[in-house]
């Protein structure tokens, strides 16, 4: 089922795979300049790079788990200030292949609805600008020493029975209470501000570099 859906996805873009497990950053890091003049360096591996009919690139990050955590895409690009793989991979592909990335998507190979097989978005100037805001927010938090534990939401089942979500064996409810006590701390505020930044698309601007529709 995934192969059929993925073939349909590529047909809509007129794309074909040109690289898989494409590593970057070992010999030469991906460099992303910040607005204050500093540069962040990245390395990683892109599951798949496709070439679209217009010569631009499509990056695909394969997932075997549930798409539930990703369902906000593309309504939100970076929910809670996270999900940064796609823009990093898109910028890496564009940098090392010498042409722009058109689209970036997570592809889910498990037993999921067809509408959730590919969750992603066009790589626009808006996406790149919001991505820069997100990583600069992360840098500010790291420099200030803001590394608070973020317990799972109370309405999520793993908040009560997931051993990986209970720090030091504490019940997640106790961890939430401890976080609430610290909400006024300016260091914690950096983390809260990062998670609540407006990372949603501007519906009235920047439909895409090529004005194309979302192929998903």
Automatic annotation (TrEMBL):
Domain (PD-(D/E)XK endonuclease-like): residue spans on this chain: 10-166
Give the InterPro entries listed for this entry.
PDDEXK-like_dom_sf (IPR011604), PDDEXK_AddAB-type (IPR038726)
State one Pfam family annotation. Answer: PDDEXK_1
Annotated region Disordered: the residues are: 186-216
Listed name of the protein: PD-(D/E)XK endonuclease-like domain-containing protein
Which organism encodes this protein? marine metagenome
Q: Which lineage do the record's taxonomy fields give for this organism?
A: unclassified sequences, metagenomes, ecological metagenomes
């Amino acid at each position: 089922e995934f192969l059929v859906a993925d073939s349909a996805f590529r047909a809509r873009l007129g794309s074909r795979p040109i690289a898989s497990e494409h590593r970057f950053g070992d010999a030469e890091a991906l460099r992303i300049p910040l607005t204050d003049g500093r540069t962040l360096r990245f390395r990683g591996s892109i599951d798949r790079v496709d070439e679209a009919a217009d010569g631009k690139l499509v990056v695909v990050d394969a997932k075997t788990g549930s798409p539930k955590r990703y369902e906000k895409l593309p309504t939100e690009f970076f929910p809670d200030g996270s999900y940064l793989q796609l823009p990093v991979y898109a910028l890496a592909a564009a940098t090392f292949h010498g042409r722009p990335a058109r689209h970036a998507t997570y592809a889910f190979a498990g037993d999921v609805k067809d509408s959730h097989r590919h969750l992603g978005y066009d790589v626009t100037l808006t996406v790149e600008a919001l991505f820069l805001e997100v990583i600069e927010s992360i840098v500010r938090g790291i420099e200030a020493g803001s590394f608070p534990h973020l317990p799972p939401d109370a309405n999520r089942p793993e908040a009560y029975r997931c051993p990986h979500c209970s720090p030091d064996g504490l019940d997640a409810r106790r961890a939430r209470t401890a976080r609430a006590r610290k909400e006024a701390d300016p260091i914690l505020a950096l983390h809260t501000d990062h998670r609540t930044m407006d990372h949603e698309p501007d519906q009235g601007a920047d439909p895409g570099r090529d004005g194309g529709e979302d192929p998903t």
